[in-house]
Amino acid sequence: MQRSLPQNKEALLKSYTTRLKEDVKSMLENFEEIIKWAKVENESQLNRMTQIEQDTFEMQVRAANIVRAGESLMKLVSDIKQYLILNDFPSVNEAITQNSKLFRTKQQECDQKLMSLRDDIAADLYDLEDEYFTSIYK
Q1: What sign results for the dihedral spanned by CA atoms 111, 117, 120, 122?
Q2: Name one GO biological process term (predicted).
């Protein structure tokens, strides 16, 4: 039996999934581009130093994008942990149910003891009353 989530929780989980896919895709694309830029293609380039500088700059930008995507993934993990903590109602409900059963059992035990005491006191009072009215010393 699958629990149905409220729509706002489903939307939140879908946004987490979307963020995860986007961040991983960004990291992968940037990593692939760094690998492409790192390859030496053709030694006959006209201005080799300019090309090297441009390639280095491009790799630095891609590396920064990977770092940004990694930080975004860390934030996503934090958000998911917070979501799980705040929405872990089944375990909270289970603990409440167990405590309720325990307290209900204790309450029934106390009620039985109190009723037993009530009956004992009532019987003793009845005996005392009977003894008082039948006594020759009144």
Answers
A1: negative
A2: regulation of transcription by RNA polymerase II
